[in-house]
Amino acid sequence: MDRRNGYLYGMKELCIVVPEGENNLSSITGTFEIFQKANGYREATGAEPLFRVRLVGTSAAVGFNGGLFSVKPDAHISEIGKADLVIIPSLNHNYQQALAGNDALVKWLQQQYQQGAAIASICTGAFMLAATGLLDGRRCSTHWSVTENFRTMFPKVHLQTDHLITDEHGIYTNGGAYSFLNLVIYLVEKYYDRETALYCSKVFQVEMDRKVQSEFRIFSGQKTHGDEVIREAQTYIEEHLDERISIETLSSGFHVGRRNFDRRFIKATGNTPIEYAQRVKVEAAKKAFETNRKTVNEVMYEVGYSDVKAFREVFRKVTGMSPLAYKGRYGISVS
Question: Which value, in Å, is the radius of gyration of the alpha carbons in the chain?
């Protein structure tokens, strides 16, 4: 390959998008640094760098953190003929503003995917990716705290916020905040090799092969729907943590048939009544482990379980960890 303007002609094109608006700086700089390190590692081992890493946008500079920092894209999106990989950074909680002010960028993302580019979104960058329509009918992850708004805005997307990373037909998404580092390491392994990914994970001290973000999720329940019966049922479940609730009895108490009750509950909350009760109980158990020194059995009884195996299975399904492992990682240490 020939070198032109300091770059190897024929390298793959990696574009890190810099959207207009007050968005997230760390997911831009962190992504840039890891891919540059991956290129450097390849060069140190005698191979050619894989990607030309570029910051692209629609203006000369974008401010961050109230103007304390600014990023100057080195290329306008109109200068990019065909990218191989495009990464959308986190939009923090400014996704409404970002969607309103980045129409040209959204159209450009559509065009790049149609031309064969892979696209990855970081955290709430999934809102911009979903605005392209490319996620319709596909799986997606984003920050657990914006689940309700995302589902409302993009009902055709199969949201899976328990997943740390989704990978489907050249579209990648990931969970929230600094978990973007796991996505970047995942992409390094995908495009370079595992040896390079391991090197980067060690340099930046990022855990390899994380699959879920369940343990970080704080479950609060979806209550902005308009179904008053279901809202009352949610409240009942939350106020009777120590009981083994019969959904059949609960539905009949509200004079609703079981099948209709389940249908309405799923429509309103995104969970079946049983799943909702499980998540409420597990969230209460998590808080108990985090704030006191009670044993696993004591907490188990407090949230309405009497069978250790059943409690362990439900807790692991929701958090990805056993109760004992969660208590060991997040509980109060014994001095």
Answer: 23
